Amino acid sequence: MIDHIRLSDDEKSVIILDQTRLPNGTEYLELSEPYEMYEAIRLLRVRGAPAIGIFAGFALYCLARKYESLPYPQFLKRLEEDAEYLKSSRPTAVNLPWAIKRMTSAAERQKSMDGMLEALRAEAQAILDEDIAMCKAISEHGLSLLKDGDGVLTHCNAGPLATSRYGTALGPLLLGRERGMNFRVFADETRPLLQGARLTAYELHKAGVDVTLICDNMASMVMKKGWVQFCFVGCDRVAANGDTANKIGTSGVAILARHYGIPFYVLGPSSTIDISCPCGEQIEIELREPGEIREKWYAEPMAPEGVKCYNPAFDVTDHSLISGIITEKGICRPPYTESLAALFV
Ligand code: MRU
C-alpha cells in the first residue's frame, strides 16, 4: 500500500498524491505554504475524512517549523491562526477540526518552546499511526459479517486513499481479499466528483477485488437482482444519535437498501463520531461550485448557461436506516445514543 500523505525528507513540506489526477495520472505535490495546504483540501487533492485529518496534522507541523524562532505566545498565536485557516477549508468531516485540535492542544501542553517541534511531530505521527490501527480493526470487524462470494455495494471512496491503510468501508474487502476471499463489489460512480469511479474502482481493481462500476442511478437495479448482500459506506460525521453524514447520495442508498431488506452498515473510526452533535440536523453540509455538476468532466457544458444548480457535497442518513456502525472498537447497534456513548466512557 502507498503512503499518499508523508513528510518531505527535510520535513519542511507535506507530500501528497494528488487524488484529482487519479486514475490517469500518479502525481505527487509538495506543499509548504498555508494556501497550498488549504487548497489541497478544498479541491479534494487530499480527501476522505480521516485523510484530511492526517494531512492537517503534518501540515501544521510543517507550518510550525516556519516560526519556531518566535517566543512561545507569538508562536502559539501563529499556529492557532494557521489552524483556523486550514479548518475553514471544508466544514462537514469532523476529523479535520478533531486533528487540528489535537495539534493545537499538543502545543498548549508544551507551555514553552522547549521540545515544541518534537511534540508536534509526535502528535501528527500519532494521528497517522492510530488511524492505521483503527482501519485494521474496523476491517476485521467488518469482515466478520461477510462470507465468501457476498455482493457488497459501496458509495464514494472510503478506501486507503481516504484514510491511511485498508480504509474503512473498503477495509473488510481488501483484508478479505488478502486472505483469499472473493467478493463481488458494486461501486457507485458517485456524481459529481466520481470518487467511486476514479478511486474506489481503482483501488479495488488494483488489489484484485472483483469490482463492477455502476452509475448512481443503477443501485436499485443491482439490489433488485439479488446481487447485493450488504451495503458498506464510510462517514464524515456521525451524530450522537447515529445520524450519519457521508457523500451525497448515501442516504438514497440506505433507503433503497431498506426497501430491498439489505443490511446497511456505516464504517468509520471513533474520531468520526461527534458526540457533541446531537443529531444530523446540526451537521453543516458543504455546498460546492455549480460547475462541478454543469461542466466538469464534459467536453462542453451539459446544461444551459445560467441554469441554477444545487450541489451539496454530503447528505445525512437517518439512524433508523443504519443496521450497524462499525468502529475500531466493534459494531454498535441501535439504539445508537447508548451504543455510541458507550465508546467514549
Ligand atoms: O468529498 P470527499 O471525497 O472527501 O468525501 C468522502 C466521503 O464521503 C467518504 O465516504 C468519507 O469521508 C469516509 S472516508 C473513510
Number of strands: 14
What form results from the Cα inertia axes? globular
**Contiguous runs where pLDDT drops below 50 for at least 5 residues:** none
CATH superfamily of the largest domain: Translation initiation factor eif-2b, domain 2
Bound chemical compounds: 5-S-methyl-1-O-phosphono-5-thio-D-ribulose
> Largest beta sheet: what is the strand line-up?
6-5-4-7-10-13-14
Q: Outline the biggest β-sheet.
A: 7 strands, mixed
Binned, the helix content reads 25-40%
Series of H and E elements = EEEHHHHHEHEHEHEEEHEEHEEEH
* Beta-strand residue percentage: 15-25%
Mean pLDDT: 97
Q: Might you state the CATH topology name of the largest domain?
A: Rossmann fold
Question: Can you name the CATH architecture of the largest domain?
Answer: 3-Layer(aba) Sandwich
Word description of this protein:
A hairpin with a 2-residue loop joins strand 13 (324-327) and strand 14 (330-332). The chain has a seven-stranded mixed beta sheet. It has a four-stranded mixed beta sheet with strand order 11-8-9-12, with helices on one face. It has helices at residues 34-42, 49-66, 72-87, 95-110, 116-143, 171-178, 195-206, 219-224, 250-260, 291-294, 336-341, and strands at residues 5-7, 14-17, 28-31, 151-154, 184-188, 210-214, 230-233, 237-239, 244-247, 264-267, 273-274, 314-317, 324-327, 330-332. Helix content is 39%, strand content 15%. Helix 1 runs parallel beside helix 3, helix 2 (49-66) packs antiparallel against helix 5 and helix 3 (72-87) packs antiparallel against helix 4. The longest helix has 28 residues, at 116-143. The protein has two domains: 5-134, Four Helix Bundle (Hemerythrin (Met), subunit A) (Up-down Bundle); 145-342, 3-Layer(aba) Sandwich (Rossmann fold), CATH 3.40.50. The chain has 345 residues and is an alpha/beta fold. The chain contains eleven helices and 14 strands. The protein binds 5-S-methyl-1-O-phosphono-5-thio-D-ribulose (MRU).
